[in-house]
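I'm stuck. Protein, please.
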Amino acid sequence: MKLRADQSGLRGLPMPLWLQGAVESFQAVLISAVGVLVPIAAVWLTGGFGSFPLDHAARLGGQAWLVVHGVPLRLNGAGVAADGGASPTSSVLAFVPLGFALIPFFLSWRAGRRLARASYADTLWQGLLGAAALYAAAGFATAFVCSTPEVSAGVGLGAAVPLVPVLLGLVVGARREAGSWARLIGVEAVDWISRTGQYSRWAGSYAWAIIRAGYVSAVGALGLSAALLTVDLAVRWADIATVYEALGAGGVGGAALTLAQLGYAPNLAVWTLGWSSGAGVSLGVGSSASALTTAVGPLPPIPALAAIPTSSVPVASAALVLPVIAGVFGGWWFQRAGEDHFDEWLAIKVPARWFTASVSALVVGALVGLVGGALCAGAAWLAGGSGGVGRFTQLGPNPLWTLVWVGAETAIGAVLGYALGPWLERGQLARAEGVAAKA
């Protein structure tokens, strides 16, 4: 980017990298703010907020922008004391719509690519620093201006928390444009690895293959859960439509409500994983649902919640197989990667192949299950939180139980996929040879 370039073709002064980073970050702030404010403005213009003043609607938009970026809001209200009188209470709204949180991430991803094209490896930090500084300033200002006695946000959190998706997007985008970490940070990883011993390289390759196989299992589990969520929404569409009709939100209000639910669609997919794995999903203090047992209290009139099974049925237990299938994908992928150096080392030390093959499969299953379960537990932590109202201060799957249940189920599937991999590969090879012979 340049400060100016006239029609004669003469190049203007080069824009400083810190300023270009600030400009790119300002675009991300502006686009994300418009995306939040437009639905709120539409509802306000159609009278959906009643006699809500314009400045209050604008502050609501700023507070929604903070929630999208993961900033917790403190809700201050009046409760009921033990003697029946009024008592001030406060709670925290910390429930991030992961679908909307992808907007600043991808905008920062774009900015990171543009900054990488405009800088060298030793100057990229200047653009990233400028982008991060402006975004932090925007978060600080939004938290300061939009805080009210009823709803407030800490200015420190407002400046720091939005930097998490922003910096992640900047770094990933810059890495994507550079093509390698060596070009991005000026460190040649291949040369460093070449100076290590052979056993270290084998151990590193084995560990990296395990991590990628666990990632395949986690993505497979979340993908299958998203498919199950889609089927459940389609089957229970009549119940969802009934809630829409009972709300009577109108065209604009219904559209805004649907948009808000789409923002929480990734959260619901992770909730579905908690339900199908048996780890369970909390729907408020004292309420939980899973494929094995369900105890759900009254729920708010949100259409998507009408699709939650209110009672366990025998067929629901079949959902437990979904994480196992995801683990099969991970174990099969590890078999295809050809990096099972632990099995090779064990086969050299112990001649009994039946023993070494069994131990290798169990070790692969345990490690893949651990990585896959940890990734899904992280997703459960991101997808849960506090609704800040009443008993809905506890929402989403428990990360620890998600780690235990999903980890164990993907471990079983990884053992099966690792063991069945050679036969599956032989079957594919035989079919390919048959097709080639016919041709």
Q: What stands out?
A: The first strand starts at residue 73 and ends at 80. Residues 399-438 form the longest helix (40 residues). The CA atoms of residues 269 and 348 lie 45 Å apart. The chain has two domains: 17-185, 196-438.
